[in-house]
Amino acid sequence: MSRGKEIVTDAKQYGLQNFQDAANYYAASNKTRFVYMNNVNVNGRWSIKTYYHDTDTWSTSVEFDTTNHAGGDGHRYPIVYHDNLGHVHVFYGAHQQPLRHARSDSPDATTSWTLATPIATFVTYPQIVSTTEGTFYLIHRNASTDSWMRKSTNNMNTWTDGTVVTRSDSGNLLYDLSYPFGVTLGTNSGTQAIHIFGSFRMFSDANTKGRDPWYLKSLDGGTTWKTANGTTLSVPIGPSEIGSPYRGKAYEFSGCIDSRGNPHLFFNIERPGTTSSHGDPYVLMHAYHNGTTWSTFRVSDSSQNTNWGYRCAYDGARIWLGWDATTSTYNITTGSTIGDLKQYLSSSANNGSTFTTETLRSVSGPVYVPGYVYLKWIPEIRKLHIYWAGPPDDATSPRSIFWEAYDVDRPSASKYESKALLKAFYRRGRRPYRGQYPW
Q1: Contact 238/168 with Cβ under 8 angstroms?
Q2: How would you classify residue 106: left for phi > 0, otherwise alpha for psi between -120 and 50, otherwise beta?
Q3: Hey, what's the torsion of the CAs at 351, 354, 358, 360, to 10 degrees?
Q4: CA-CA distance, 142 to 118, in Å (whole number)?
Q5: pTM of the predicted model as reported, rounded to 2 decimal places
Q6: Are β-strands 194-201 and 250-257 bridged in parallel, bridged antiparallel, or unpaired?
Q7: Contact (Cβ atoms closer than 8 angstroms) between residue 384 and residue 406
Q8: What DSSP element (H or E) covers 240?
Q9: Fewer CB within 10 Å, N side or C side of the chain?
Q10: CB 403 within 8 A of CB 5
């Protein structure tokens, strides 16, 4: 069983792990850009494609950086974004490495590029948002341990040196690390609220490979930060100060803000009685803050082993969640197979109390790697853009990416607005509309 359209067939197999910002919608010309790591060689190179919504067609792939950068892995978060003048910017290649930056030479075009000076030298998990006033914020882990925020007011041509938002208690790579896993903006007037979702990785206690999820918001452009219940904290903020909705072995995080301005976190936990390796079976969980306290609920059932690469979005009325599950577990260390694979789209119209789920794709095993699912709400056209990774035929072959534009107002009508994109995947594109929430 399958839905969506295959848009890429040459994606690097390990290059699909963190692609939530690999797509960006540009309202001025009604186009979506998508970036991915191709399978041209052992390290992979970087390509971009354009989707023309008016004609329902995709362009051919363009390699914007033909250098064979060594050290490729699945953590190298590609980001595509349009600046206020329409130039296309791509940030890519960072996993404790320099964050590379490519800029299109002409607005709303991808044929000619300039490779700019890398941003910082030791970046991991970068994410970008922009305010209605034209300020761009870059959130990332820096130098292995801390979460940093940088700012640009000149269309991403230069960035501030950055400030530490969250820090590890130990400051040691072998102990506590701070991970930023998601960022979004509010739509309030004046200075927009910045919402960040992340985790602290606790090596220094018995939780040897677990992470405690966290949430913060800033109402003053990142100078000060508040917890979900409104407590103001001064940067840098450590694990003991911020609190967490769940303490234990948690993995893979995603977050969104509902109609009341309250945060929702989604993450995996290990099943009770299992060990702390990456190969353990996982359960998908949902943590919700009602303005006073956190509550935690289970999303997946007992027969499902949830994997990595899910993301959530909010369309003004419903929370949407893309995720995948398998009949057996995947071990990231050994690369073992994971049985049959199913990729899902879930939604909740009651702020996450209950979810309804439909299947995007079902694949009989053996499957060699998880089938990451990403999505993004595009308010200008009221579509939910969903992209997910197709499994390879073996442990080394390139992968496909499938894409669907889901009409949230007519879910039973034509759900596909598509063409072939690129075999890797795409996340939640957005740009001239620079925020979704009124908080």
Answers
A1: yes
A2: beta
A3: 50
A4: 14
A5: 0.87
A6: unpaired
A7: yes
A8: helix 239-242
A9: N
A10: yes
Whole-number Å distance between alpha carbons of 418 and 159: 36
With beta carbons less than 8 A apart as the criterion, state whether 165 and 137 touch: no
- Who wins on pLDDT, 70 or 403? 403
Average pLDDT, rounded, for the chain: 80
CB atoms < 10 A from the CB of 394, how many?
10
Range from 45-54, 87-96, 271-280 carrying the lowest mean pLDDT: 271-280
The pLDDT tens digits for 313-365 are: 999 899 999 998 887 655 555 555 667 888 899 999 988 888 999 999 888 87
402-414 confidence digits (pLDDT tens): 999 898 987 654 4
Calculate ∠ Cα 420-426-432, nearest 5°.
105
Ordered domains of the chain (ranges, CATH): 5-407 (2.120.10.10)
**Angle 134-222-218 (CA atoms, 0-180°, nearest 5)?**
100
Distance, C-alpha 31 to centroid of its chain: 20
Q: Exposed, middle or buried by CB within 10 Å (0-12, 13-18, 19+), for 205?
A: exposed
